[in-house]
Amino acid sequence: MKRPQLSRLEVVLLAVSLLASIVYFAEVSHNSPTFFIDEASIAYNAHTISQSGVDEHGESFPLYFRAFGEYKNPVFIYLLAALFHFTGPSVFVGRLLSAILGMIAALLLGLLATRVTKKRWAGPLIFLAVLLTPWAFEISRLVFEVSIFPALLAGFLLLLYKASLRAEWSWRIATGLGALLGLMTYTYSIGRLLAPLFALGLAFFFTRSRRRGVILTWIVFAVMLVPLATFNLRHPGALSERYKFVTYVKPGDTNTQIVLRFVKNYGGNFGPGNWFLKGDPEPRHHLQWYGSLLLGMVLLATIGLVVVLRRHWREAWWRFILYGLAVAPVPASLTLDHFHTLRLIALPIFLFVLMMPAIRFLSADTSPRPRARRALLATLAVLLLVQGGVFQWKFYAAPARVDAFDSYYPELLNAAMAQPERPIYLLDKTPAAYMYAYWYSTLRGLDLHSFQRATQAAPPPAGAVVISHELPCTNCEMILERGQFRVYRQK
Q1: What is the Cα–Cα distance from 387 to 464, expressed in whole angstroms?
Q2: Which of 43, 81, 191, 471 could form a disulfide with 49 if both were Cys (CB 3.0 to 4.6 A apart)?
Q3: For residues 117 and 109, is the Cβ–Cβ distance under 8 A?
Q4: Dihedrals φ, ψ of 23, to 5°?
Q5: CA–centroid distance for 312 within its chain
Q6: What's 113's DSSP letter?
Q7: What is the torsional sign of CA 336, 337, 340, 342?
Q8: What does 263-289 look like in DSSP terms, one character per residue?
Q9: Which of 268, 262, 260, 285 lies closest to 339 in space, CA to CA?
C-alpha cells in the first residue's frame, strides 16, 4: 500500500521545522558561555556523580542534592551525570541536554496534535509553536531541573490521550501514567504539588470499565512517592526550607489575607501584560520587554478553549485539559515572585494543547464558511511564525547577559590563580558563590585543594588571596573587582 504523498503545506511546514531545528541547536550556547550559580551547582554535582557516585558532600547517590539553603531535584542531575560520564564536564553539554529535552517536548506535542486533529500538518505547526514560543524556548536554554518538566508533561498528556480513546486501560498504560506522574514529582519543586493535582484529575476518567486502570495508575504513582516520603521522614522540613523564603504565606497571616493574595497572584499569571509585553522580570529567565507568549498561539488557544467549552466539555480528556490549565498556575501563585517563568512552566503546555481543537475546527471542510475559517487559521499561523521568528532574531541579537549569569567569574578566577599564595580563600555573603570556584576549576582540571572556604566569623589570615562575594574589602590590597565579586590580598 502506497503511503500518501505530502501536500504542499506539509512540505513547507516540514522545511520550516527543519530550519528552526538547525537554528535551535546551532546556537545552543548563545544564552551564556558561562553558568549561573544554580547551573554550576547542578553541573558540578552531576560531574561528581559521574566520576565517583557521590555528591559534593560525599553522599553516595543521593535522592536530593543538598545545595546552599535548599535541595536540588534529582532527575535532571542524573541525566546530566550520565552524559558527563562519556563527555566530561562541559557548559556546552549541559546546555545541549536542556535543548534536547526542549526538542523532545516539541516533538511529543507535535505528535499529540497529529492524533488529536487527525491532520498531519498540525504536528509540524504545533512543533514550530513550541520551538518559537519564548516561554518554552528560554527554558530550553537553561541548565535547570525544570528543563525536563515540559517533556515529561507532554509525554504524560500523549499517553493520557491514548488512554482516553480506550474503554479499558491496560496495565502498561496505567503503569506508564503513574510512572510519569512520579517522575514529574522528582523533577522540580512545582512537581510535588502539580503531580498529585494531575493524579486527582484522573478522576474525570473514572468509569466502571476504566476503574481498575485509574486505580492502578494511582497505586503506581503512590509507590513512586515512597522514596520522597522516606526522605521527608529522615530529613524533616528539608524540602520545604526554600519555600519558606519564597512564599507570602507567613505565620500570623489571616486566611483572608492569604486567599486575597493568592487570587491576585493567580489572576496576574493570566495577565495580558505579562503574556504579550513584559514576561518574566528576571533577565536570566527571559529576554526583557518581550512577551513570553506569541499572539497567534494565544488566539488559537482561546478559540480552542471556546470550542472545547461549546462542543467537548462532556469528554473526559478535554475536561482534564481544562482542569490542568486551571491548576497549572497554583504553585507559582503561592510565591512572592510575579510571573515566574519556571514555576509556571506547565501553563504554556496546556495552551499548546488547546490550540489543537482550534486547528481541527478551523480546518474542517464540513463546517459553515470553510474558506473564511481556513483563512483565519492561516493568518494566525503566519502571525505565530513571524512573531516567533522576530523573537528568535531579538534573542540572538541581544547583548550578552553578563551580570545575569555572573559571566565575569572566570576572569576573577584567573586573577586569583595568578597569585602565588595558596590556598585561595572563598568568602561569601551567602553560602553559594563557592560553587563557581569549584565548577570552573573542575573545567580546567585544577586541584580543588587550592581553595578553602572562609566565613566572616573565621576570616582569611593576613597575606591570603581572597575571592569575595558581596562583602566589602577592608584592610586589603584590591587585585580585581567585577560586579558583586572582588579578588584581593588580605593585609
Answers
A1: 54
A2: 81
A3: no
A4: -65, -40
A5: 30
A6: H
A7: negative
A8: HHHHHHTT-HIIIII---S-TTTS-TT
A9: 268
Cell 537554528 belongs to residue: 23
pLDDT tens for the chain, residues 1 to 491:
455 677 888 899 999 999 999 989 987 877 788 999 999 999 999 999 999 999 999 999 999 999 987 899 999 999 999 999 999 999 999 999 999 999 999 999 999 999 999 999 999 999 999 999 999 999 999 999 999 999 999 999 999 999 999 999 999 999 999 999 999 999 999 999 999 999 999 999 999 999 999 999 999 999 999 999 999 999 999 998 888 888 998 888 888 999 999 999 999 999 999 999 989 999 999 988 889 999 999 999 999 999 999 999 999 999 999 999 999 999 999 999 889 999 999 999 999 999 999 999 999 877 678 888 999 999 999 999 999 999 999 998 888 888 899 999 999 999 999 999 999 999 998 888 999 999 999 999 999 999 999 988 888 999 999 999 998 888 899 999 999 999 999 99
- pTM confidence score: 0.95
Alpha helical stretches, state H, 293-369: 295-307, 316-327, 330-333, 346-362
| Angle at the Cα of 203 from the Cα atoms of 202 and 207, rounded to 5 degrees | 110
Cα–Cα dist 94/348, whole Å: 24
Sign of CA dihedral 382, 384, 387, 388: negative
Q: ∠ CA 12-13-15 to the nearest 5 degrees?
A: 65
- Give me 81's grid cell: 551525570
CA dihedral 248, 251, 257, 261 (to 10 degrees): 10
* DSSP assigned state of 427: E
221 HSE (CA, 13 A, CB side): 25
- Retrieve residue 46's grid coordinates: 552531576
Q: How many helices (H) and strands (E) does the chain have?
A: 21, 7
Give the residue from 142, 187, 150 showing the smallest Cα distance to 37. Answer: 142
Q: Which cell numbers in the block locate residue 369?
A: 464558511
Beta-sheet pairing, 424-428 with 465-469? parallel
- Yes or no: say if 364 and 373 are a contact pair by the CB < 8 Å rule: yes
